[in-house]
Write a structure and sequence with these properties.
Layout lengths: L1 H25 L8 E5 L2 E8 L2 E4 L26 H5 L7 E2 L3 H9 L10 E4 L42 E5 L4 E7 L6 E7 L13 E2 L3
Antiparallel strand pairs: 1-2, 2-3, 4-9, 5-8, 6-7, 7-8
Length: 210
């Protein structure tokens, strides 16, 4: 009887270990595979957010200018004028995003717009990088990872960075993610491009809908 009891106890322990081991494996987090798109021989990571797929880093291809001669902020990518924007060869199946694309991106994260502006909203942090901002870092829950690259004006001057992300759109406007004056939340504002404006901004690509 004692032998049977010991055997039953051992089998019970083995069964329980196998059961909970299987349950633990079932709960393992599935990490999505990182996808890339090749642009000018460079591999750019992509991220799917809502119904859209974006490049997850700023463009740093031909033309434009880096942050400085040392390229000390590679995460900012390059800065481009409106004229330089026209010369970029967009990869097949992709495009320069419109301002409506950016608005849809923000709305997918719970951002609410009044006209073309979204002011003092915590949800904007989901689009914003976790570092480099002067006062308000984001949480980048969306994976868009907007760094505060700012914008460049003079050819040889350092871009004005730290509190703003500026992106070109395909419809001669720029989308600006800014630190709010209250230093608690960000704002999103859309500006119309003014002809002959020397400012240079960053660029992302979005995949065309099928």
């Amino acid at each position: 009887m004692k032998t049977n009891y010991v055997l039953l106890k051992v089998l019970t322990i083995v069964f329980l270990n196998l059961f909970f081991s299987c349950k633990k494996d079932d709960k393992k987090e599935i990490i999505p595979q990182v996808q890339f798109v090749e642009i000018d021989g460079e591999q750019y990571p992509t991220v799917t957010i809502g119904n859209q797929t974006w490049t997850a880093t700023n463009y740093k291809g031909q033309g434009g200018r880096p942050y400085d001669i040392f390229n000390s902020r590679p995460e900012y990518g390059n800065y481009y004028s409106f004229e330089e924007l026209q010369d970029i060869e967009v990869p097949a199946g992709w495009k320069i995003p419109s301002k409506e694309d950016f608005i849809e991106l923000a709305k997918s994260q719970g951002v609410v717009f009044t006209g073309q502006n979204a002011v003092k909203q915590d949800a904007i942090k989901k689009l914003v990088s976790q570092t480099r901002w002067l006062n308000i870092n984001g949480n980048n829950k969306s994976g868009f990872d907007a760094y505060p690259g700012g914008y460049a004006i003079e050819v040889n001057s350092t871009p004005m960075d730290g509190d703003i992300s500026e992106f070109w759109t395909s419809d001669t406007a720029t989308v600006s993610i800014q630190e709010g004056a209250d230093l608690k939340n960000h704002n999103i504002k859309i500006y119309q491009y003014l002809e002959n404006d020397p400012s240079k901004f960053n660029i992302r690509f979005i995949k065309k809908n099928k």
